[in-house]
Amino acid sequence: MDFFATVLDGDALSVTLALALLAMSVASWTVIFYKAWLLHRVSVDVVSAKAAFWQARDVQQGLQALATIERTAVLLPLAQANQQLVQGTLGAQGDVSAQRTRVLRDALHGVLHRLQSGQVLLATVGSTAPFVGLLGTVWGIYHALTGIATAGQLTIEHVAGPVGEALVMTAAGLAVALPAVLAFNVMGRIINRLEQELEGFAHDLREL
User: Fold this and answer.
1) Residues 82-107: what's their mean pLDDT?
2) How far is CA 95 from CA 26, 126, 201, 203, in A?
């Protein structure tokens, strides 16, 4: 409580840095919870939806199976990509295999963009939060020492309290950054695995 009172009673820079760390923490945890839920559902859906699609008698039945089973719609845009070929347009000119490769690639990029959303925020928080906390610590120590010098009293009791409270800003920066870094690494591995699954499915669709 003393630390929060000190921060709120500080100057504009101290309050701004504390609020920035709070905003980073709220944003990163929001992304972490949402991405954990999304990637879990995608991982489950991909396995069951792929099996249902390849067990269908034809493409139309496979599309119906994907629309029924998939809750996250990551395979369905790939399976529907061939339907985007419209005769009489520039996109429909040229080799048919090249056309299908193009539409599948565009659909795959759209799905991957959904899966990778939020990763930049986690990486940004993980790399900048420690420096924001360090800046708050340096600024707090500067003001603590300035106050001690003005008071004309230099004892361990007068130094330890303000400096200790300032150092908490560094700990706060690390506490904000560590979950973001861990989530970025773990979710990055899951996204890479899903990307391989989706690329394999797109390749099989093109061959089909």
Assistant:
1) 69
2) 50, 46, 21, 17
Instruction: Confirm whether pTM is higher than 0.90.
Output: no
Residue 119's nearest CA partner among 34, 23, 184 is: 184
CB 147: neighbour CB atoms within 10 A? 12
Contacts of 36 (CB under 8 A, 6+ apart): 183, 187
Distance CA 187, CA 206 (A): 28
**114 or 101: which carries more pLDDT confidence?**
114
86: which DSSP letter? Answer: -
Give 59-67's long-range contacts (Cβ < 8 A, gap of 24+). Answer: 59/208
Percent of the residues in the chain that have a pLDDT greater than 90, as a whole number: 30
Q: 6, 147 in Cβ contact below 8 A? A: no
Q: Which two tokens stand for residue 101?
A: 């490769």
CB-count burial class (<10 Å; 0-12, 13-18, 19+) for 126: buried
The per-residue pLDDT for range 133-148, each reduced to its tens digit, is: 888 888 877 777 776 6
Q: What is the DSSP letter of 72?
A: S
